[in-house]
Design brief:
two-stranded antiparallel sheet, Bact_polysacc_biosynth/exp, Helix Hairpins, transmembrane, cell membrane, transmembrane helix, 7 strands, LPS_length_determ_N, 64% helix
């Protein structure tokens, strides 16, 4: 029984080797076609290397200031809360490094950046118009009248855009977010973030990278310090209000004193308004003193809550560029041409055997 199995295995192995040899001989017989296809592929690869535009990458590196904890202001903030006041404290974890990297890639930030003004050949246009020019979209819109008249003016109001404008902006965002924009944190322990913008236009890469950092920086500062600004504004209004009441009470004391000048000491009732006004002066003085303290603390808190995106390295011309090399085009084109031809010949042979 074992001898029969060994013989069957040996026969199967011999048949397999014979089949492999047969396929090799078949491919060798088609070597002229394969070589010709490889040459054609190499020529196409070389042609592609001439046609393919180089990709320029602009890199901006910044450090994120992220203060945590209340520090020495903890007691002062607690005292303020006892008066029903909230001086801000902390902006929370919404703008941690990981969240901030996603903010850079958000559609809102990218579209606001695309509407930023830039100077191109002495003319002020938006980055969106620059992107359209770089990709020669307007030539493709010649047969589409509804697109040919669309313009993206610098600092245009995004809320009044038409459906077609929304569609074009959405397409630009998708293209940039998929292949043109990369935001990454170098190390989780270090708050240093890199922004990479890649495009076939050197100036667009540089302008967009810098404008995006500026746009996100402004949004970051305004949002994180918004609560502290609101609280400071409330305190300033309360200080003005109490100061007005104090001035009125001081004037009232003076008026009451004038009315009781040379008053008979036995007529104490006539001195009541003056005493009441003096109590008002003392109370308002105490309140104003405390509010002024809280107002100053609020200013300190606001300065603390205004974060900083400190730019370390900006993109400097000329930018690094990545070109599809001629040698790479020849090798890849020749390999793909030969491989696809071999695959085609094998499939054709299999189909002919099955018939």
């Amino acid at each position: 029984m074992d001898n029969k199995l060994n013989e069957n295995d040996e026969i199967s192995l011999k048949e397999l080797l014979a089949k492999i040899k047969e396929w090799i001989n078949y491919l060798i017989s088609q070597k002229k076609i394969i070589v010709l296809a490889g040459i054609i592929g190499a020529v196409l690869g070389l042609t592609y290397s001439f046609i393919k535009k180089p990709v320029y990458t602009a890199t901006l590196t910044f450090a994120l200031e992220d203060e945590k904890g209340g520090g020495g202001l903890g007691g002062a903030l607690g005292l303020a809360s006892s008066f029903g006041l909230d001086l801000g404290g902390s902006g929370g974890g919404i703008f941690s490094s990981s969240n901030l990297t996603e903010l850079f890639k958000s559609r809102s930030m990218v579209e606001k950046t695309l509407l930023s003004p830039v100077n191109v050949d002495g003319k002020i246009i938006s980055l969106a118009e620059m992107y359209i020019q770089n990709n020669e979209w307007r030539k493709k819109w010649d047969d589409k009248p509804k697109y040919s008249s669309i313009q993206f003016l610098p600092n245009a109001n995004r809320k009044v855009f038409t459906r077609d404008q929304d569609s074009i902006m959405g397409l630009m965002y998708l293209n940039l977010s998929k292949s043109g924009l990369s935001v990454a944190q170098k190390d989780k322990k270090i708050s240093i973030i890199n922004i990479d913008v890649s495009s076939t236009n050197e100036l667009f890469s540089k302008y967009f990278c810098e404008a995006l950092a500026k746009e996100v920086g402004q949004f970051y500062i305004e949002t994180k310090s918004k609560k502290a600004r609101m609280n400071m504004a409330i305190l300033e209004r309360q200080v003005d209000s109490v100061r007005g009441e104090l001035n009125g009470a001081i004037t009232g004391v003076a008026v009451a004193n004038d009315n009781t000048f040379n008053l008979n000491p036995a007529l104490n009732v006539r001195r009541t308004p003056s005493a009441r006004r003096q109590v008002d002066v003392q109370a308002n003085t105490a309140i104003l003193t405390e509010l002024v303290k809280q107002s100053e603390l609020a200013k300190v808190t606001l300065r603390k809550e205004i974060p900083l995106i400190q730019v370390i390295d900006r993109p400097i011309l000329p930018l690094p560029k990545e070109r599809f090399g001629k040698a790479k085009g020849i090798i890849m084109g020749g390999f793909l041409g030969g491989f696809l031809t071999v695959l085609f010949l094998i499939l054709r042979k299999i189909i002919s055997l099955l018939k």
